[in-house]
Amino acid sequence: MGKGSKKKKQAYGHANDAGAAEPKNVAVASEKLNNKDYERQLFKLQTELVKMQEWVKATGARIVIIFEGRDAAGKGGIIKRITERTSPRVFRVVALPAPSDREKTQIYWQRYIAQLPAGGEIIIFDRSWYNRAGVEHVMGFCNKQEYTKFLKTCPSVEASMVNDGIILLKYWLEVSEKVQHKRFLARIKDTSKRWKLSPMDLESHRRWYDYSRARDAMLAVTDISQAPWYILPSDDKKRARLNCIADLLSRIPYEEIPYKPPKLPARQKPHGYEEPRLQHQQVAQRY
Length: 287
Known about the structure:
The structure is a single chain. The chain is an alpha/beta fold and 287 residues long. It has one domain (35-250): 3-Layer(aba) Sandwich (Rossmann fold). Helices cover 40% and strands 11% of the residues. The chain contains 10 helices and 5 strands; from the N terminus they run H-E-H-E-H-H-E-H-H-E-H-H-H-E-H. The protein has helices at residues 35-59, 75-83, 101-104, 110-113, 135-138, 144-163, 177-189, 199-206, 208-222, 237-250, and strands spanning 62-69, 91-94, 121-126, 167-174, 229-233. The protein has a 5-stranded parallel β-sheet with strand order 2-3-1-4-5, sandwiched between helices. The longest helix is centred in the first third of the chain and has 25 residues, at 35-59. The protein is globular, with a radius of gyration of 22 Å. The relative contact order is 0.20.
């Protein structure tokens, strides 16, 4: 895994002169993936991620992975599985809050460019500069001129990143209307998930088709040859996680770095040291 693999067929075609690219049907496996098979496959993929991590450190590669999609599409779950067994010193997740008053006076790209990787780093954007083409545009947080300017400049900015040697991968998680609705209801009922449902999420549920139009326009303009979009069906969370990790591994030309197991050194002699009876407060053993 990792070298010489062909790019998978994209679910959205490239932009054409007529305007937005039209979505194509994506075949999704209907058979449910059981937990045992899922965990086994996930562990294999996470092992490969660790190998890729060592290659990134050894070669000084710079990688940016962008995750975009509707609310409740499953971005957080995928990112969690990618970073579960990897080093936070190599894999860094960026989820920027709303811009401050100061940041609003900067050029739009400034706070995102500051997050780009140095050598030996992988940056994962949990939402990215594409906020301008999505939530900011739909909710009126930017004006039409700012939105149009973003769509015009985005391809050239991303092309310059790639031309400078950054590996840029962009994933759009495609969740259906029915499944998003079901996940929102689950968040309302589950006390451990209520924090995931914000007023902005509720508004995105109401404005489904406004977000659909914004998605179509964004994909049509920013699906460039240097940095294409990869559409990930995410109604099935487990399959989406596996498919996404397998796909990103196939698009990064990593090689396994030979590993030489270290030899643990012998412990030093105690030289009279004795463990004291700790008189401090103890954590109650409830389990």
